[in-house]
Design brief:
heterodimer, A: 115 residues, mainly beta, 7-stranded mixed β-sheet, 4-stranded antiparallel β-sheet, 52% strand, globular, B: 115 residues, 6-stranded mixed β-sheet, 5-stranded antiparallel β-sheet, 0% helix
């Protein structure tokens, strides 16, 4: 079974630009979560989507947004990029339903560099 | 006080050694406990997933959870050079569905197993 796929793997952008990252979850997984990983802060939760609805959001500014499509694929967007947005952005998927818990499985991430 | 504390290491051991990795946490609401392994330039890979207190064994890996002490451990027996990676503990407090994608991570411990 294919794992979580994230595209692109690497991205270089300039301050002020916007960027869109893509994530395809494991087949059958309905929940997609996004995380930002930096050396200083570690892994921090951005948001989670389930059945095309955002059901939780971390403590990030409104410049960070996301969405989920009917096939469970997800995108996240960062507008007006800042140097501090340089990070590894990780997508994770799970079977998570309404009445049970299941672990997250991560993709290999998109490395975003803002210059 | 951070919600999850993890010694960043680095930890260097000889091949064949028993490795002990630990995390402490402050939020008694956490119920699900995970260990992830992350190789350089890769996403976190799920190693162990446990609910509440107790032990869980999988091959050379044993996870322990002591909720009374708010302390979790991962033991690696007969460590191999291929175990060299960063190990991340993670936990969540969602009992039934809801926002299961919001994990709180430790900063990770970098392990090096020398041949």
């Amino acid at each position: 079974k294919a794992g979580v796929t994230q595209t692109p793997r690497y991205l270089i952008k300039t301050r002020g630009q916007q960027v869109t990252l893509s994530c395809s979850p494991i087949s059958g997984h309905r929940s997609v979560s996004w995380y930002q990983q930096t050396p200083g802060q570690g892994l921090q939760f951005l948001f989670e989507y389930f059945s095309e609805t955002q059901r939780n959001k971390g403590n990030f500014p409104g410049r960070f947004s996301g969405r989920q499509f009917s096939n469970s694929r997800s995108e996240m967007n960062v507008s007006t990029l800042e140097l501090g947005d340089s990070a590894l952005y990780l997508c994770a998927s799970s079977l998570a339903g309404a009445d049970y818990n299941s672990p997250l499985h991560f993709g290999n991430g998109t490395r975003l560099t803002v210059t | 006080q951070k919600e999850v504390e993890q010694d960043p290491g680095p930890l260097s051991v000889p091949e064949g050694a028993i490795v002990s990795l630990n995390c402490t946490y402050s939020n008694s609401a956490f119920q699900y406990f995970m260990w992830y392994r992350q190789y350089s330039r890769k996403g976190p890979e799920l190693l162990m997933y446990t609910y509440s207190s107790g032990n869980k064994e999988d091959g050379r890996f044993t996870a322990q959870v002591d909720k009374s002490s708010k302390y979790i451990s991962l033991f690696i027996r007969d460590s191999q050079p291929s175990d060299s990676a960063t190990y991340l503990c993670a936990m969540s407090g969602v009992r039934y569905g809801g926002s299961q994608g919001n994990l709180i991570f430790g900063k990770g411990t970098k392990l090096s197993v020398k041949p």
